[in-house]
Every structure is written in C-alpha cells, then in structure tokens.
Automatic annotation (TrEMBL):
This is Acetate--CoA ligase. Residues 554-632 form the AMP-binding enzyme C-terminal domain. Keywords: Acetylation, ATP-binding, Ligase, Nucleotide-binding. Its EC number is 6.2.1.1. InterPro entries: Ac_CoA_lig, ACAS_N, AMP-bd_C, AMP-bd_C_sf, AMP-dep_synth/lig_dom, ANL_N_sf. NCBIfam families: Ac_CoA_lig_AcsA, PRK00174.1. Belongs to the ATP-dependent AMP-binding enzyme family. Residues 55-105 form the Acetyl-coenzyme A synthetase N-terminal domain. It comes from Protofrankia coriariae. Residues 109-492 form the AMP-dependent synthetase/ligase domain.
Length: 670
C-alpha cells in the first residue's frame, strides 16, 4: 500500500483500487500523492467570496446572516428580529419575517423574464430528454398546489413524497412549499415498509407516488407495493399517482387520484402563501443510534438562506452560464438542498438524471456531461471509487472539457480517489470542493471555496463564513491540533429546529454532551497545523454505506424480526468500494447453524424491511455475542473481529470465551 503525504490514514480505504492497466496514470497518481496541497488555479477567481465577508461573519454572525437572507431572498414581510436565542437549543431565525420558498425558487425568476430558461434538463433511463423551464415548473407547481388543497391539504399538514428522479418530484416539493404543507420525502430506494413507518410517525395526510420505477431496464410496480404496505394507514387520506412508466397501477376510487388528472382540473393560479420564516418546510427522516429514524425538521427562512448562500458560494455559481449537475437522489438532504432548493432559488440550470451510472453502459454520466456541457459536477466518493474500478476508458470516451468545478459529499474521500477525480474527470484543471455537512445542518458547513482555498486531498478544509466548528476532547477541552469530537459552537440559519414531535430527543441527541449551546455533530475529526478539518467518521452507532446513513439498531431490528433469528448485532467494516460495509453477527433460534441459503434469505428480509442498501455484506453465525456484565453487546469487539484486528480489552465481558470462539470462527471462514 502506498502511503499518503498527509498521513491521515484515510487512504486505508481503497488506496489500491485504481484498477486500470494504465500504468502511466497509476504512476502519475502515485506521484501526486506526494503533493500535500493544491493551490487554486490562478485564473479561477471566486465570483462571490469577499474577504470582508469572512471578517464580517466573524465579528457579528447574526448580522452577517441577516445580510445574506436580505440580499439573496425575496421577503413578503421583511424581518426585524434576526436570531432569537432566548431558549437554546431551540433557535429561531428571522422570526417576524414572512416569505414563500416556491416564490423564491420560481416566481421571482419568471417575473424577471427568465421563464424560458431551463431549470431542469431531465434525462430518462431509456434516453428520453425533457427540457423543463422555470415557467413550466411554476405552472405545474401552481396546479398541484391547488390540487393538494382540493384533497384537503392545508398549512402544516404533512405530505409524503415517494418518487423516483423525475421532474415531478421537484414540483411536488415546491407545491407543498407553496401552500405551507410540510413535505416528507422518502428515498426511492427504500422499501415500502420504510415508507409506511415514515408516513405513520408523521401522520401524513397525502402521499405522492408513482405507478412504477425503472431501474436498469426493469420496471418495479411501486403503486402496487405501496398499496400492499400502506393501504390501511388511518391518517393517509389520499394517494396521488404520477404516471411515469405506464405499468399497471391499482387506483382505489375515492382515495387515489392520478397526478395528471388532478393537475388538469386544477385552477392554474395559486398565489404563494406568505409563511412565517419559522414555518416548517420539511421533515426528512435520517438514521440515528436507535432503530427509530429521526424526523429532522427544517423551516422556511433559515433553511432557504443556507441552501441559497452555500450553493452559490461553494459552487461559484454563474446562473447565466453554468450547467450544474448533482448526481445524488432527491430523497436525501443533498437532493433537497443541492438539486431542488439551492439551484432553483439561485435560478440555475441543472441536469436531473433518472438512471443508474452503469446503464445502458458505464459511460452514461460522462456522456451526459458532454451532451449538456455540464460545468459543475457534484457526486459522492463512493461513486468515484466505482468509476475508478471500472477504469478511465469510460470517461475517456467523452469530451469533459466543459467541467470547471467538481464537488464531493457524504463521506471522507481517500486521497487517491480525490486525485483520480482531479486528474481523470477534472483534467487537472478543476478545483475540487470536498463538502462536509449533514441532514441536520441543512447546508454545507465546511468546504474549500473554489479560487480561494488551497485544497489538501482528503480534507474538507475550513468552515464557511458564519460557521463556527471546533474540536473537543472527550472531557470537553478544546483541541487546537489533533483529533477530537466535532462540534458547532454557534447556531446557523439552516440548522435543524428539532426532531419532529420529539423535542426531548433533539436536546438529548445533539445538545446534551457539552451543554445546551454546543451542537454535537456525531463525527470525529482531526485539525491540522493549518487549521484544516479532516473528518474521520461517525462516533455513534451509525454506519455510512456509500454515503448513506444507516443505524446499526435499525438493521439489527430488521434481522431480528426474521423468525429464524434469536439475536443479532451489526457493525461496520471498512470497505474499498462503499467506505463502510455492514457485517451482521447472527444467532439463530435453537442454536441452529445457518447456510448460504439462510444468508440469502436474511439479506432479502432486510431488503424488504428497510431497502437494498441495508443488506449486510457479511453474515457471521454466532453461538453467542460478547456482552458486558450488564448485558450490553460490545460492538467495539465485534468490529475488531470483523476486521481481523487484535482484540482490545475483554476483561469487562460476562464470558470472555465468546469472543475467542467467534474470532476463531471468522478466521477459519476467511
Ligand atoms: C454524515 C452525514 C450531507 C449530505 C450527505 C450525507 C458524513 C458527509 C462528508 C465529507 C467526510 C462526510 C459525516 C456526516 N459526511 N459529508 N465531505 N467528508 N464525511 O448526509 O446522511 O446526514 O450524513 O455523512 O459522517 O456526519 P447524512
């Protein structure tokens, strides 16, 4: 294994995976590993960053954010109160102001004569193209807003959205925002039972879904599956069905309605409702350290300020000339902030792609970049590692010279993947922004600024203006250089406001360890001598698989719900491809031993309970699990066993023989 110049240890993931025969590329990347920092290209001048901003933000953060909120957004009623911090951690921003998110994303651009501008270049899986302009989006959004009202949806009601990557997903979100309904988007890759849970706990009144979803040439009957799981939910009054693939979809008279019929009969004019800045905009469920997902709540004014400000600054957006593409799914926060709200609020032109990166072939992304002359591309390290494995011949088939800026998000990027991205995709000329943030933070908090910040491969570098991260030691002492627990010490506008209907869990999860005014991120990080942040990873029981957050407890409870299983413990193991992979230690009832068929069955069971991405990569049969005397499963030891490490301290175990037996078994199997 080659060592990195930065010594972060992050290269432990996938250093040797430049799976190409291209020896000279391999050699070049190895040489680049010695380069510790990359200065911004001299001709790249940031459009939006002014050094005075950083000074202003440091001197008076609320005043700085007020300035951003006023200049970037249109307000129906200007705010006079900037930050109400009288009851931490329940912070409120721009409280007496009123605005509408959909008006900021659509109406103001159309009013300024940009209605014919393309908002979304949509690319379907079978090669279809749709040009969706700002006027188109506004027209559909107004009709759907009226349609939702017809179905009885009012201000504050929750609307579920379970849609694939089609433009209707943006319309659905914006229509909710227009009337003050609160959307709750569920990632299209989740199983219907996960949709059910999220609808049930949020009392969703309406669900907007689709007839079917396409994946690599096959069509899954989504509506049918949704009916089977959600048919009896009491609070769910209506299901709106988008006709997308044409696959048969059962329509229950009185409850279900076709999206296109609802739009056809709806009044075309729906004035945007002026909403309090603190009116809830959406809930997005994310995994935490218990099996119950957390309903992260974002509100109107602060969230849109954060998404708009960061999207323009971090991606150096020129709304007139850039073609921007974020390859995430809209069902994650990345999609909310950087496919829908940030780009639309800034009046950008984006690409939206329905399909998979390897269908019909492994060059489809690069083909799209060439065709639409994409200038800014934002993706996840796991996707880059997959492309590395496939080899540089796929991007090599296309002209990628339109690209001028690249971004990553979701997990630490190992320096070699960073360099490959820089070299093979960016042609060595594009700055890379490694953006650190979370569902909870609403918007990017730590990232290089293109044209401003020197980058170091593997580091998210420094905080954006107005953001105040710090590292603390276990006992709460500030760490100025070295590793520690990442915290944010001052509130920022796009932070979550609470966990939906669970204020107590909100305080407990984020604001109990170091006091009520210190936000605890859940990541460990390292701060180097230049003040650069290197994110190490989660310190709670959350697993990051391909940049997707999963809770060990959630996966465990899915496994245990199988009739053959007595007990299960789930841990993460590092994985070249996905960053982390799920390993499940499983005890079967009556101490039976499982075989390959049982493994396949358990994996399938998890797929139907949560979704395919939660399937354990490895299942290890355990006669017993290592527990403390109080009965707590010691995951730390299981991680050591899974990764074949020397076992740590076992003296606190109830039965130390259990680990030895397990370790022996794993060693044999390997
Ligand atoms: C967790 C948040 C933010 C959208 C995608 C994930 C990890 C995120 C980075 C990065 C290292 C990162 C952290 C964080 N993470 N970005 N650039 N470098 N780690 O959102 O599902 O809320 O997950 O993703 O561990 O806490 P999320």
């Amino acid at each position: 294994m080659t060592s990195t110049a930065d010594g972060t240890g992050l290269d432990a993931v996938g250093t040797d995976i430049v799976g190409t025969d291209d020896v000279s590329l391999e050699r070049e990347l190895d040489q680049l590993l010695a380069v510790e920092r990359f200065d911004p290209p001299p001709d790249f001048v940031s459009r939006w960053y002014r050094p005075a901003d950083a000074a202003a933000a440091a001197a008076d953060p609320p005043a700085f954010w007020a300035e951003q909120a006023r200049t970037l957004l249109d307000w129906d009623t200007p705010f006079t109160t900037v930050l109400d911090d009288s009851n931490p951690p329940f912070y409120r921003w721009f409280t007496d102001g009123r605005l509408n998110v959909s008006a900021n994303c659509l109406d103001r651009h159309v009013a300024a004569g940009r209605g014919d501008k393309v908002a979304i270049h949509w690319v379907g899986e079978e090669g279809e193209r749709r040009r969706v302009t700002y006027s188109d989006l506004l027209a559909d959004t107004q009709r759907l807003a009226n349609g939702l009202k017809e179905l009885g949806v009012g201000k504050g009601d929750v609307v579920g959205i379970f849609l694939p990557m089609i433009p209707e997903v943006a319309v659905a979100m914006l229509a909710c925002a227009r009337i003050g309904a609160v959307h709750n988007v569920v990632f299209g890759g989740f199983a219907p039972s996960a949709v059910r849970e999220r609808m049930e706990v949020s009392d969703a009144k309406v669900l907007i879904t689709v007839d079917g979803a396409r994946r690599k040439g096959r069509t899954a009957p989504v509506k049918e599956a949704v009916d089977a799981e959600l048919g009896d939910l009491k609070a769910l009054e209506h299901i709106v069905v988008v006709r997308s693939t044409g696959i048969a979809a059962p329509i229950r008279e009185g409850r279900d309605v076709w999206y296109h019929e609802l739009l056809e009969r709806a009044d075309p004019v729906a004035p945007p409702e002026p909403l309090d800045a603190e009116h809830p905009l959406f809930i997005l469920y994310s995994s935490g350290s218990t099996a119950k997902p957390k309903g992260i709540l974002h509100t109107t004014g602060g969230y849109l300020t954060g998404a708009t400000y960061t999207h323009r600054l971090v991606f150096d957006l020129d709304a007139d000339s850039d073609v921007y593409w974020c390859s995430a799914d809209v069902g994650w926060i990345t999609g909310h902030s950087y496919i829908v709200y940030g780009p639309l609020s800034n009046g950008a032109t984006s690409v939206m792609f329905e399909g998979a990166p390897d269908y019909p072939d492994r060059d489809i992304w690069w083909k799209i970049i060439e065709e639409f002359k994409v200038t800014i591309f934002y993706t996840a390290p796991t996707a880059i590692r997959t492309c590395i494995k496939w080899g540089p011949q796929y991007p090599g088939r296309h002209d990628l010279s339109s690209l001028r800026l690249l971004g990553t998000v979701g997990e630490p990027i190992n320096p070699k993947a960073w360099l490959w991205y820089h070299k093979v995709i960016g042609g060595g000329r594009c700055p890379i922004v490694d953006t650190w943030w979370q569902t909870e933070t609403g918007a990017i908090l730590i990232s290089p600024l293109p044209g401003v910040t020197s980058t170091k491969p593997g580091s998210a570098t420094t905080p954006l203006p107005g953001i105040f991260p710090a590292l603390l030691s276990e006992d709460g002492q500030p760490v100025t250089e070295g590793t520690g627990v990442l915290v944010i010490t001052k509130p920022w506008p796009s932070m979550l406001r609470t966990l939906y209907r669970d204020d107590e869990r909100y305080v407990q999860t984020y604001f109990s360890r170091f006091g009520r005014d210190v936000y605890v991120v859940g990541d460990a990080a390292r701060l180097d001598a230049d003040g650069y942040f290197w994110i190490i990873g989660r310190i709670d029981d959350v697993i990051n698989v391909s940049g997707h957050r999963l809770s060990t407890a959630e996966v465990e409870s899915a496994i245990v719900s199988h009739e053959l299983v007595a007990e299960a413990a789930v841990v993460a193991q590092s994985d070249e491809q996905t960053g982390q992979a799920i390993v499940a230690f499983v005890t079967l009832t009556g101490n039976q031993s499982g075989d390959d068929a049982t493994i396949a069955e358990l994996r399938e069971h998890v797929a139907t309970r949560i979704g395919k991405l939660a399937r354990p990569k490895r299942v290890i049969w355990a006669d017993d699990l290592p527990k403390t005397r109080s009965g707590k499963i010691m995951r730390r030891l299981l991680r050591d066993i899974a990764e074949g490490r020397e076992l740590g301290d076992v003296t606190t175990l109830r039965d130390p023989d259990v680990v030895a037996a397990l370790a022996g078994k794993v060693a044999q199997a390997d």
